[in-house]
């Protein structure tokens, strides 16, 4: 049986698995629900206010480090248009292209 997991992220403690209970919701907490086919992110009231204020876009915040670590999915020669997201162009291949190529090599 596939059991969904609910992971709590808070400034007061390390990330932890929590029960699928209403008590898991808090103002200063983010919840990530992984139900295998769907991933949902819930922002507490305080976290949502910070997101709406655009704190993650300010230069002194560290969202830029995440963008530097993400594997790019759009190259200069691809015709990608994603609504509502920033597209980071690169000359490197995407992780999906790498996996597809690796699968072809394994099957041969």
From TrEMBL:
Any single biological process term in GO: COPII-coated vesicle cargo loading
Upper lineage: Eukaryota, Viridiplantae, Streptophyta, Embryophyta, Tracheophyta
Function: Component of the coat protein complex II (COPII) which promotes the formation of transport vesicles from the endoplasmic reticulum (ER). The coat has two main functions, the physical deformation of the endoplasmic reticulum membrane into vesicles and the selection of cargo molecules.
UniProt cross-references to InterPro entries, sorted A to Z: ADF-H/Gelsolin-like_dom_sf, Gelsolin-like_dom_sf, Sec23
Predominant cellular place of this UniProt entry's protein: membrane
Topological type in the membrane: Peripheral membrane protein
Keywords, alphabetical: Cytoplasm, Cytoplasmic vesicle, Endoplasmic reticulum, ER-Golgi transport, Membrane, Metal-binding, Protein transport, Transport, Zinc
UniProt key word Membrane: yes
Record's protein name: Protein transport protein SEC23
GO annotations of cellular component type: COPII vesicle coat; endoplasmic reticulum exit site; endoplasmic reticulum membrane
Species for this entry: Cinnamomum micranthum f. kanehirae
Subcellular localization, as worded in the UniProt entry: Cytoplasmic vesicle, COPII-coated vesicle membrane; Endoplasmic reticulum membrane
Domain of life, per lineage: Eukaryota
Similarity section: Belongs to the SEC23/SEC24 family. SEC23 subfamily.
TM region(s), chain numbering: none
One MF term in the entry's GO annotations: GTPase activator activity
């Amino acid at each position: 049986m596939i059991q969904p997991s609910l992971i709590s992220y808070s400034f007061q403690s390390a990330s932890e698995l929590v029960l699928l209970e209403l008590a898991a919701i808090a103002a200063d907490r983010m919840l990530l629900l992984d139900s295998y086919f769907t991933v949902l992110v819930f922002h507490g009231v305080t976290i949502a206010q910070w997101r709406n204020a655009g704190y993650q876009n300010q230069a002194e915040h560290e969202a830029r480090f995440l963008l530097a670590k993400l594997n790019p999915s759009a190259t200069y020669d691809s015709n990608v248009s994603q609504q509502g997201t920033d597209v980071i162009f690169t000359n490197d291949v995407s992780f999906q292209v790498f996996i597809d190529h690796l699968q072809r090599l394994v099957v041969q």
